[in-house]
Structures are given as structure tokens and as C-alpha cells.
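Budget justification aside, the reviewers requested a transparent look at the raw inputs and outputs of the sequence design task funded under Objective 1. We therefore reproduce one unedited record. The lines immediately below are the C-alpha cells for a 690-residue chain.
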């Protein structure tokens, strides 16, 4: 039996200096707080500056904002026609002549920073010369961040954590400076922004902050901007508050130890469909009670799910891989366990305005089903039920049947205009895949019925999207495209034909939809299409990016970005793949691809392919490949080096967890470990992959 406490705590991040590129976060999956070395957001400006800046944000999955006067829908967009099988389909891909509308629809709605919480000493701004870090430890087992630092040589100890259920940050700090009244906490509220920080602190006239109640227990604050209203309750022990600016609250104490709770609650958030009476708000539990609740939650989290322990391994790669696994488990727990699919930067900061990309939902969340935490995946999977009417409208507006899932959207499901996003299709089978992983982990007839319409209507769209081709001689076939943009976003959508991953994912989706129907006692509907789909294109002994791209490995930019043809025998287990050709394709990718252009989830994708090919040593090398976008920081985040928009990248963390679960628990009927010699592998509570 794995000693899970030792497994987890040996990877606690411990800092003794500033780590501007790798700040630490606490959260509950739907609310997240990122801190500097003081345990708060004291040096906000310093952390927000420079290349690949990692801003210090307070974010909740419900916190969405739109600028005043921004458009409510996309009905006035001018669309571009594309030919598909002799008829026209229209997409919002061209901003020319409609730049402002195009930009506004992309930027709104966006996530926003709820409020900067920081230390202040003697009313002065913190100085890197007078303030110095001593030690900061993120206790993964308890979900508590402990920070020790000095101000002018005087010690300060701070503990911060987030309540596992409420959107509440807790803080306890101890210092002789607090007793003398010099050390204080400030809460400064920004205007919402679509930018990476989610905050604009230079627009005080565009929002409102009002103290609506002040009692012995604390104060209540009402925030309002552009139709969004949210409440903040600050409570605790041994503290005083004052309004020290138009949007700033200052908190001080008269004892060495001060305990505080900062609770955030959405009142009216149109983009998230929230409308709540302010009277429903409640004060948070006291610090000691909440800390006990937090500790119990994290202990249960680590004990209940799966675990992989590499202790005793002689392979030098094992320790680093284990560190990445444990920290990825923590980061996906605090960023990706909400009721909506996560943004690519989760709740740490804004990427693409905080909107979520549904093609990334698999990479974010599939691992939960493999790690014995299917309930966490089901929370975001259930959002597809709310989105189904919008997906039906998208399909119908383009002349298709069934449900077409958007790519980049906010909670309302608006398909954001884009020269690329609206033409992607590889997110379409995701609900089938994610539902199947949930069902395999916990077979249940009610679950089959619950997701029946989503499965079938997804397959119906896919059926109406493929086209029948009747050649002059030979057997006819169903083909995929054009127009669409494949996973590898380097191709003209007007000529893309039979991109291998999409082709085999559609084939898998058709077959799986039939299996779902048969489980319900219904007749299958899609088998003929699955069998008559075109075969994955190949040339010179390797698979191509698509049928009309013979220069896949010889001409830029076709050997850049995602090597997605590998996914059909890694992520998928396509029976149409020739393993020898796939092995040669993997070799060719590793030899000629521009690895600087990989993204974080490409490494687990390639490792999964290597694993199915029996190339277990290569799988480990790929997972740990020295590449700019495979950087795993001291906090565990997968930074996409060189991309200022992505100081962290959660699909890389989620993908890693999916790949190693596959290697540890089995796949496609294979059981047992797929790790190379030199790895001592103990695994518990994991489920086999497809």
C-alpha cells in the first residue's frame, strides 16, 4: 500500500527566494487565489511585469464581465461562405470591415479579477529592499500556504488557504508589527478587464464599491460594474477596517495575530446566468473551523483518488516525473474541478479572455475518470446539457443536423468569431469520449439515459458533416472535409481532406454512439458510415497531415504545431492504423518537427502513441523532453516558454496525468505497467484507458 502522505509531501514546493515566474496558488476548483512570497498579492505590480509574466489574480468560475455597450449576440456579423459538397456554409472568420464588432465579440464576456488582497506596512508601498522572503511552503496534503518573510528585519508569518466549498480566502498572520498597528492588509478592487490580469486599476469611475453593512463580525461590501454585481464579506478576529480609497479597504489589528476571511459571492452575473438575492449571503466560519474543513478535504482528496509511487526506482527520470504528477494532481484540483470547462490558464489568469476552448476539455479533464475521480469530470460534462440548445442552433444555422459544439466560448455558449476557431471540428466527439470514460469507471443505466441525446445528436452532426464520394472507378467512401481546420492549425480549410486524427475520432465516435444505443436496447444508427469512412492517408511509409498535404514532413509550416496524426494511435486505438507505419511516423516527427512549436499537451499525446507501440522508454523521454513548452515550473505549472499569454498551461498538466495513468493501469485490453526497466511502479485506484 502506498504511503500517500509521504508521496505527496515530498513534493511540497518550498521557496526561499522570490519566484516571480512560479507563484503559488490555493483554491477549490471553482475559486483560486495566487500569491507572492508574502502569501498575499503584495507585490502585484512586480509579478505582473516582464515577459511571460504570471499575474497574481483572485478568480472564480462565475466571475464574468462584459464592457458597457458590448454586443449581446453575433447576429450582425458578416459571414464568409465556404463550399462543402456543392453547397455553401458560412463562418465568422474575417474581421475586415467589421473589426470593432469582431473584437468586441471575442473580448466579451471575459473573466475578471475579484480583488487584490495585499500587505501594507506603515501606509507605504512595499519595498523589495525592506521586505525579504525567508521561507514559503505549500503544504499539498493540507492545501495551506505558509509564508515567512521579514519587513525591516521584523518577522511575519502568514497562512493562507481557500475553503473547499465556499469562495472564501482565509488569512492568519502573526507579527509584532501587527500589534503595533503598522502591518495592515488592503483589499483593492479593480475594474474588469479582458487582459491577462483580468484587472484594470486605472478606471475608478467605471465601477462602484460600497460598504453596505458593518458589524462586530466584519463588513459587507457590494461591488458593481456594467451590470455585474458581487458581494464581498470580510470577517474574522482582532481587526479593524476603514475605507482608505475609492475602491480600497484597509484592515489593521491590535494584537500580534490577526485572522481574516474574504468571501466572494456573485449576485448578478448575466454571462454566467446568475441572479441572486443579496440576503442569501452568509458570514464564513471562523478560521480554526475552516482550516479543519480544508485539511480534511485535502486529506480525503489525496486518499480517495488514484496514486502512482516511483520510490525505489533506479531510473533517474522517475523522481522528476513523480514530481510533475503530484503537482499536476494538485493544480487540476484547484483550477479544473468546477461546473464549467476550464480556460487554458484555469483560474490563475486570463488566456483568450478567460474563455474556455472545448477542444481542450479532453486534455484538461479526461484524467479525472482514470484517477478514480469521475465525479469531478461529471461536473463539467453536465454543462453540455445546458449547451445542447445552442449547439443545435449552430448546426441548424449551417444546414447540419444534430448538435455542433462551439470551440471558444463563455458560459452562454456563444461561438466566438475567429479565423481558426469556428472551423475546428476535433472537439465534436469529446462529449462522447468523456461520457464513455465516466461510464467505464462507473457503469450506470441512469447515466446512459442522461447522456443519450448528447451522444446521439453529436453523432448526427458528425454524420451530416461527412460527405459521400463516388469515384469514377472503385468503391465509394465517406470523406471528411473540406472545409475545416484540423488539430494542426497550419492548413487551408478549403483543401483539408481526411486529416487522420479527426477521421479516426469521427469513426470512433460513430461506433461508440452505436454502443451507447445498444446498451439502452436501441438499434444502432451509425455503423455503416464508420465502416465506409476513408482510410488515414499515408505516403512513403508515414501518415500525412491530411490527404492533400504530401509535403507534411518536407515543407514549412507543415512540420510545425501539433503532430496530430499520432493521436489516432495513442489518444485513440484505431484499428485502421498500421503500427509499423505509425512507428515510422513517430520517428519522422521526432526527427524533423520544429519542437519549439509543440504545445504542452503534444508531449503526452506523443507519449501515448509511443506507449501503444510498445516504445515505453521513448514514452518517458517524450514526457520529459527538454523543450520550451514542456517546462514544468517549481509550482508544477506547464509554462509555454516564449508565449506571453500562457505563463501556465493546464492542458499540459491534465494530459500528463492521462498519459501516466494509461501507462500504469493499462489500455485497450492490456493490463499492467508500461514503464521501462528501471522504474519501480506502485499504482492504486487507477482505471484503464480505452
Amino acid at each position: 500500500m502506498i504511503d500517500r502522505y509521504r508521496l505527496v509531501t515530498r513534493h511540497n514546493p518550498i521557496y526561499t527566494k522570490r519566484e516571480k515566474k512560479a507563484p503559488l496558488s490555493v483554491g477549490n476548483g471553482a475559486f483560486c487565489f495566487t500569491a507572492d512570497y508574502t502569501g498575499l498579492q503584495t507585490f502585484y505590480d512586480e509579478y505582473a511585469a516582464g515577459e511571460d509574466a504570471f499575474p497574481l489574480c483572485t478568480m472564480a468560475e462565475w466571475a464574468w464581465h462584459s464592457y458597457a455597450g458590448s454586443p449581446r449576440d453575433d447576429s450582425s456579423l458578416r459571414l464568409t461562405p465556404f463550399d462543402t459538397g456543392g453547397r455553401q456554409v458560412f463562418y465568422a472568420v474575417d474581421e475586415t470591415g467589421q473589426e470593432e464588432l469582431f473584437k468586441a465579440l471575442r473580448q466579451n464576456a471575459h473573466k475578471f479579477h475579484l480583488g487584490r488582497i495585499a500587505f501594507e506596512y506603515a501606509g507605504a508601498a512595499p519595498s523589495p529592499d525592506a521586505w525579504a522572503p525567508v521561507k514559503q511552503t505549500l503544504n499539498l496534503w493540507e492545501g495551506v500556504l505558509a509564508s515567512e518573510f521579514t519587513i525591516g528585519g521584523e518577522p511575519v508569518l502568514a497562512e493562507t488557504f481557500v475553503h473547499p466549498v465556499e469562495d472564501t480566502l482565509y488569512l492568519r498572520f502573526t507579527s509584532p508589527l501587527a500589534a503595533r498597528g503598522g502591518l495592515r492588509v488592503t483589499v483593492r478592487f479593480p475594474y474588469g478587464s479582458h487582459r491577462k490580469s483580468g484587472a484594470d486599476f486605472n478606471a475608478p469611475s467605471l465601477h462602484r464599491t460600497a460598504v453596505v453593512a458593518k458589524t462586530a463580525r466584519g463588513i459587507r461590501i457590494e461591488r458593481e460594474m456594467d451590470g455585474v454585481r458581487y458581494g464581498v464579506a470580510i470577517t474574522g478576529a482582532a481587526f479593524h477596517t476603514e475605507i482608505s480609497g475609492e475602491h480600497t479597504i484597509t484592515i489593521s489589528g491590535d494584537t500580534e495575530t490577526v485572522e481574516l476571511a474574504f468571501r466572494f459571492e456573485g449576485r448578478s452575473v448575466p454571462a454566467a446566468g446568475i441572479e441572486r438575492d443579496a440576503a442569501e449571503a452568509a458570514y464564513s466560519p471562523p478560521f480554526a473551523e475552516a482550516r479543519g474543513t480544508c485539511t480534511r478535504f485535502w486529506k480525503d482528496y489525496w486518499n480517495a483518488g488514484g496514486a502512482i509511487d516511483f520510490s525505489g526506482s533506479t531510473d533517474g527520470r522517475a523522481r522528476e516525473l513523480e514530481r510533475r504528477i503530484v503537482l499536476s494532481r494538485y493544480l487540476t484540483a484547484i483550477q479544473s474541478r468546477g461546473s464549467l470547462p476550464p480556460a487554458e490558464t484555469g483560474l490563475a489568469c486570463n488566456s483568450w479572455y478567460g474563455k474556455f476552448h472545448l477542444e481542450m476539455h479532453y486534455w484538461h479533464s479526461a484524467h479525472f475518470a482514470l484517477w478514480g475521480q469521475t465525479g469531478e469530470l461529471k461536473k463539467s460534462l453536465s454543462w453540455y446539457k445546458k449547451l445542447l440548445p445552442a449547439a443545435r442552433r449552430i448546426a441548424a444555422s449551417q444546414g447540419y443536423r444534430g448538435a455542433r459544439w462551439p470551440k471558444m466560448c463563455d458560459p452562454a455558449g456563444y461561438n466566438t468569431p475567429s479565423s481558426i476557431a469556428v472551423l475546428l471540428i476535433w472537439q465534436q466527439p469529446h462529449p462522447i469520449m468523456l461520457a464513455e470514460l465516466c461510464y467505464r469507471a462507473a457503469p450506470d443505466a441512469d447515466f446512459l439515459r442522461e447522456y443519450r441525446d448528447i451522444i446521439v445528436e453529436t453523432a448526427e452532426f458528425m454524420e451530416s458533416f461527412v460527405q459521400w464520394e463516388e469515384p469514377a472507378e472503385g468503391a465509394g467512401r465517406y470523406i471528411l472535409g473540406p472545409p475545416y481546420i484540423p488539430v494542426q492549425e497550419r492548413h487551408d480549410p478549403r483543401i483539408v481532406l481526411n486529416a487522420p486524427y479527426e477521421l479516426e475520432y469521427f469513426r470512433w465516435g460513430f461506433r461508440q454512439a452505436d454502443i451507447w444505443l445498444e446498451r439502452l436496447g436501441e438499434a444502432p444508427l451509425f455503423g455503416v458510415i464508420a465502416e465506409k469512412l476513408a482510410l488515414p492517408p499515408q505516403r512513403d511509409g508515414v501518415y500525412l497531415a491530411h490527404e492533400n498535404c504530401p509535403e507534411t514532413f518536407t515543407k514549412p509550416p507543415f512540420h510545425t504545431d501539433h503532430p496530430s496524426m499520432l493521436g489516432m494511435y495513442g489518444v485513440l486505438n484505431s484499428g485502421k492504423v498500421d503500427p509499423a507505419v505509425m512507428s515510422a511516423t513517430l520517428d519522422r516527427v521526432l526527427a524533423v518537427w520544429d519542437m519549439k512549436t509543440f504545445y504542452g499537451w503534444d508531449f503526452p499525446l506523443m507519449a501515448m502513441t509511443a506507449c501503444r507501440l510498445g516504445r515505453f522508454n521513448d514514452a518517458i523521454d517524450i514526457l520529459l523532453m527538454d523543450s520550451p513548452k514542456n517546462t514544468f515550473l517549481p509550482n508544477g505549472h506547464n509554462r509555454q516558454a516564449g508565449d506571453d499569454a500562457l505563463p501556465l498551461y493546464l492542458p499540459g498538466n491534465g494530459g500528463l496525468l492521462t498519459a501516466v495513468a494509461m501507462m500504469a493501469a493499462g489500455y485497450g485490453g492490456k493490463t499492467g505497467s508500461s514503464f521501462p526497466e528501471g522504474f519501480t511502479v506502485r499504482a492504486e485506484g487507477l482505471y484503464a484507458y480505452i
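The longest helix spans residues 500-519. The first strand starts at residue 14 and ends at 15. Computational costs for records of this kind are itemized in the attached budget.
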